[in-house]
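Appendix B, record 7
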Amino acid sequence: MSVSAHDEPSLFSRLGELRVFLELGSMLPALPALMQAPRGDGHPVLVLPGMLTSDGSTIVLRRYLSALGYQVHPWKLGMNWGPSVEIRQGVRDRFKELSDRYQRRVSIIGWSLGGIYARELAREMPALVRQVITLASPFGAGYKMDGSFDPELAKRLRVAPPVPCTAIYSKTDGVVPWEACLEEKGPKTDNIEVQATHIGMGVNPLVLWAIADRLAQPEGNWQPFDRSGFHSYFY
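Structure tokens (predicted):
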């Protein structure tokens, strides 16, 4: 699917981002159910925040995954101001630090721009990455730092890295074009649609459950998200 520079969220979708307060309010009542999510082998997980946010935005997600037994880590690079040379090198160094510490493949979760960083890390060091999970990451949009559209950049970024990749997206995203957040169909790619806001992805119970499901898969036995059973009512 090609994405042009004109595929922007509608005004209705932008106003819909106010639903984030409902997502926040749903966390506490959903917590008992969320703690029944599948549990994996406790492998290391690196969580990367979105544009103009920091590790504070991912604290709910990280605490939830830690409660499930994973070794979860923030990026520790402060505010995500964009893909500067310093940020790109900092993400690379942080990932390598965790890979060396655990001597295991690391799963990477990236929210929005953080997901683009995650996919690029996996493209550069696929042997060290267990899987990538992106949350509303517009890797197919092809926007440069000045806001202009670059079709060649979009074409390059849309190709998935050679590791299992799951893209979680919402058609009511009020910040980025949801069409740009989809992985192309392949043996190691999957797309999971959720009812969520862009800014609420990290606290939305449906998103958290889907992430837990993906992380719980045995290493080397990745499968697409199973939408049968009770999943069919929510995804």
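Remarks on this record: The helical segments are 11-15, 20-34, 59-67, 85-102, 113-124, 151-158, 205-215. The first strand starts at residue 44 and ends at 48.
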